Amino acid sequence: MIKKWKTLSSKQVFSHPRHNVFIDEVELPDGSKSDYLHFGKMNDTAMVIAVDNDGKILIQKEYSYPPNEILYQFPGGMLNDGESPEQGALREFGEETGLTGDIKQIGWMYLENRRKSQKMYFFVANNLSAVDNFQKDPQEFFEEFWLTKQEIEKLIKNNKVRNYTALAGWAFYSNLN
Predict the structure, then answer these.
(1) E strands of 6-162, at which residues?
(2) Under a CB-based contact definition with an 8 Å cutoff, are residues 31 and 10 in contact?
């Protein structure tokens, strides 16, 4: 039977508004002690797969600095403190697209479960309409495409979608029916 580890101590070794690093001393199931590096508590995130009345799906391209690539993704982002996954999904969706709609949660997963407990919630949005007073985030630059399910699957097959959260969201969406 697998046993949980016991935290003996925790020390923050790096702090930044977007990221923290901790080293915990833990006791392993066999009684030995070890240091374990992790990123502490981070706000959860949400992603929205938007489907219009014609069945086309919104996918975006955005520049990602660390790999220095322009990557395909679905709209979404980090939840604010006190925000439910649904509220955060609708807010992020509106900020990134100027759209709102009826959303339904289709799944969730841990992001980097070896280093943090942060979750990503996945939603599908239908009955889309424009957001009142849309204000684009000045630090985000997107190119948007409305594609069929088959066109997105072709992008995935041809290794054009290389972002694991987009692939995970697509897996949840593809298995709805």
Answers:
(1) 6-16, 19-27, 33-38, 45-50, 57-64, 69-73, 76-78, 99-110, 119-130, 142-147
(2) no
Tens of pLDDT along 59-113?
A: 999 999 999 999 999 999 999 999 999 999 999 999 999 999 999 999 999 999 9
Beta pairing class for 33-38 and 99-110:
unpaired
Q: What amino acid occupies position 94?
A: G
**Whether 47 contacts 169, CB under 8 Å:** yes
Is the separation of the CB atoms in 71 and 59 below 8 Å? no
Q: For residue range 33-49, what is the model confidence (pLDDT) as tens digits?
A: 999 999 998 999 999 99
Give the whole-angstrom CA distance, residue 118 versus residue 158: 30
